[in-house]
Structures are given as structure tokens and as C-alpha cells.
Amino acid sequence: MSKNKIAIGVSRSFDTPVEEQIRLFKKVGFDGFFTEWGDEYNISECRKTADELGLEYQSIHAPFYGASSMWKNDISALSATNELLECLDDCARFSIPIMVVHPFIGFREHTPTNHGIESFKKVVQRAHELGITIAFENVEGEEYLDALMTAFADYDNVGFCYDSGHELCYNKGKDMLKKYGSRLVATHLNDNLGVSRSDGEIFWTDDLHLLPFDGIADWSNITKRLSDLEFSGFLTLELVKKSKPDRHENDKYQVMPMEEYLTKAYECACRIADMKSRHDADNSKK
Fold it and tell me: Is 261 in a helix, a strand, or coil?
């Protein structure tokens, strides 16, 4: 039996109303879910539906389009900070324990600033007051993640969200769990085909969010690393049903009925949980 519960993220790519998605998650077998945050998500109703169905509202994914503004010394940084603070308030109001945050967005800049640390500090300190964990995710711009994890090393409410797909493409296969696994609090599990450009340049269309086992990720290795860390939290899928521009890898999902697609996702999550359980058993014998 797996030590880990399984969850999945609500997605606008599913073309299904949010409440219906959550009910389908329960129907096919998931233990929990996460949502994004914004006008299209009624967090109060999501909370009520979760309670009604006995599902765990595992986390909220904070808005990330303003992530690069957090590092600037202008009015855009204040706006981005306030947006994260509003999201954080909803986490507290509706008893959602984790807020997943992108440290950065973009591929050209590679220089964290003290202004950025100070902006994120307001969010981290407020989260500490509210009893919410901030989970910084591995995305593009690894320098920014490193700066934040270093700056907030002494905060017990700051952890790491591991995205398996981002590790393949945005981090070019670098072992992100080796660097930040001791602070792992959340997972976003998905697959892709790695970096597609021959010159090695990373690009956002490589972040396919395929079903696990439909790409090149080494799931035995991923689950072994999670087991070695004795990770007992949710194994959470973050998937996209639609293909990126000029890509067609996700087209096969688009033609699948929603319940069929989610059933396949559930089977993948169970397979991952089983693989990790086998590694757990092996580790217990050592």
C-alpha cells in the first residue's frame, strides 16, 4: 500500500467547469486536488465541493505572470507582491495549507536582485503569520530559485515544489531533488520530451505537461529519489490536455472524453505511487 496520497490539478485546458472537474477527480479515485488562483476560480465553492466529497484541497498555485516583476524596483513589483498576498489570504481563509510560487518567468534575465528578495520577504513573512507554507517551484531561471531558497533557509514555512517536467526541459535534466529535496513539500508530476532545440536553448513550448510515461522521464529514477527523501506528501499530477503552439504531442488527449482522460491520469498516478512504494520497501530493508 502506498504511503502517498495522489492528487491532480484543475486545468483550464480540460474545457470542463471547475466544479465538474473536481467531482470527476473524486469519481475516478483521486484523494485531492489543487487549483490556480484568479477570477475564474471560485475558491469558496472549490472548498465547499472538496468538503462535500471528502477530497483534500492540497494547494493553490499562485499567479505567475508577474513573477519577473517581483525582482524589479518599480510599481510593477508592488502590484505583483499584492497579488501574491491576496492569494495567500485566500489560502488562509479557506484552509489550504500550501501556496506554490514561481520564482521567475522568462528566459533572458539571470540576475536576482535585493529588491526581489525584499518583495518575496513580505509574502514569506505574511505566510508565516498565517501558518501557510510557501513552496517555490523549479522553473526557468534557476538563479532566482536558488536566491530565494538561500535567503529563506531559516524559515520553516518555506519549502520546495518539485516539477518533474520542468526538470527535464527548463533545468535540462539537472537533479533538482538533490539540491532542494531536503525541503520538499509538494510535487507537480508530468512528462515531456526534454529540450527540443539542437542548440540547447530552452523554450516554453517544451513544457508539454504530458501524462506520465508518455515522454522520456525516467519514472523509476524519479520515484527512487522521492523514496530516498522519505517523501510522504501528495504525489500530484499537473497536466495539460491541449498541445502547445506548433506542437501536437497532446492532440491525442484532446479527443478523449474527460472521464476517460482522467481515468488514464489516475492509472498513471497509481503506477507512480506503486513504483515509489517498491523503492520504499527496498529502502526499509537496508
Answer: helix
φ, ψ (nearest 5 deg) of residue 163? -110, 115
Sign of CA dihedral 283, 4, 64, 21: positive
Beta bridge partners of 134: 99, 158
Nearest alpha-carbon partner for 244 in 257, 258, 254, 259: 254
Burial (Cβ within 10 Å: 0-12, 13-18, ≥19) of residue 245:
exposed
**The CATH number of the domain where 163 resides is what?**
3.20.20.150
Full domain range(s) for residue 217: 6-284
Q: Which three cell numbers stand for residue 264?
A: 488514464
pLDDT tens digit sequence for 17-37: 999 999 999 999 999 999 999
- Report the predicted TM-score, pTM, of the whole model to 2 decimal places: 0.97
The length of the chain in residues reads 286
